[in-house]
Design goal:
This protein is α+β, with helices and mostly antiparallel strands and 144 residues long. Helix content is 44%, strand content 31%. It contains four helices and seven strands, in the order E-H-H-E-E-E-E-E-E-H-H. The longest helix is centred in the middle third of the chain and has 23 residues. The protein starts with 7 loop residues before the first strand and ends with a helix.
């Protein structure tokens, strides 16, 4: 999203939970194939697959990670809950850039004083810098 409309939202790309579910199924299949009667191998594959499926379920249950309206933003809270933050509660909107493994990662930080909400590219389906710019524009418009 390039510009924030009065009501915008950013969500997990659809391909991400699908990839997690496929990876979980493949991991379980490989565990069954290579367990050779070893319960520990099968249990580890099952636990890893269950973790991936749980992670994918969160993406399917709460795909919208950040939503914007005239009064503030709504963020995902906990596993699949939502929390509305009015503009007055938001102290800062920043983008943290860090070089890591030869790549630069960006994280959107929404600081609400007592809580800090972090969003990556895969949470938003967009660049955190673009989303931060849209949030700042909407905040200025609401303050005007």
């Amino acid at each position: 999203m390039d510009e924030a409309s009065p009501s915008s939202q950013w969500r997990v790309p659809v391909s991400l939970p699908v990839a997690k579910l496929v990876a979980g199924a493949l991991l379980l299949a490989l565990g069954l194939l290579f367990a050779d009667g070893d319960a520990v191998r099968l249990a580890l594959a099952g636990l890893a697959a269950a973790g991936l499926v749980g992670w994918a379920l969160r993406d399917l249950i709460a795909p919208v990670r950040l939503a914007l309206d005239d009064s503030g933003v709504t963020v995902v809270h906990g596993f699949a809950g939502r929390r509305h933050l009015p503009w007055s509660a938001i102290e800062a909107i920043t983008v943290d850039r860090r070089p890591r493994l030869g790549l630069t990662t960006e994280t959107l930080e929404v600081d609400a004083g007592e809580s800090l909400h972090l969003f990556g590219r895969y949470d938003l389906g967009a660049s955190p810098a673009e989303v931060a710019a849209a949030l700042r524009t909407a905040r200025r418009a609401a303050d005007a």
